[in-house]
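Dear colleagues,

As part of the handover before I leave the project, I'm documenting each prediction I ran so the next person doesn't have to rerun anything. This entry is a single chain, and its sequence is reproduced below.
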Amino acid sequence: MIKVVGIGPGAREHMTYAAVEAIKSCDVVVGYKTYIDLIKEFIDEQEVIVNGMRGEVERCKEAVAQSLKGKTVCVISSGDAGVYGMAGLIYELVPEGHAVEVIPGVTASTAGAAILGAPLMHDFCHISLSDLMTPLETIYNRVKAAAASDFVICLYNPKSHGRPEYINEALSMIMSYQGTNLWVGLAKDVGREGERTIISKIDEVDYDLIDMTTVVIVGNSNTRNIGGKMITPRGYTL
């Protein structure tokens, strides 16, 4: 049995009971070192298998190998295991019919939205700006399509040392379709030490505040700033 576990932002209060119980009751815990450190309070006598960034395939292959030995294995993802997480890769690797359970977690967009206000009350989409596995042209085409459709847009992996300008380009593309009268929320280190939010108009975003621990939520044409909170009306008649 393999359990692919989403641990949310990493703080205990943002984890589900199912996630905690899965970790406590498994034989083997497999994950990226940073995520294992976040759940170390739940690890007792379980075997722990860790590696570094970009070792996802190796981790998942080892998890499958351990599971085929008859062990119950937890594969750890931050956020939700099915949103840019390990769930899909595990399903691609396991033999047909092998038992897999996906345990959902709080993903960055919903965790960030909760501290920004209520920006996801209407249709929204997720776009990752990481081009490690997706061509940059494809990413930008998706940004343009989302802007043209007036979606609220949640931008994951917005900035790294290797691609510092992608977020600037993405927001410029959105402005080319919708102008500058859009609200943007930055949710930084959600659920962790240093949690912070910044709300500004799209042409006033401070790009220096954005890093890989930031989720960027771009409102649609109806999103408003109400009392310092970012709100997208659902459409109720008030």
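The chain has a mean pLDDT of 95. The helical segments are 17-25, 33-38, 56-68, 87-93, 108-116, 136-148, 166-178.

All the best with the project,
I.
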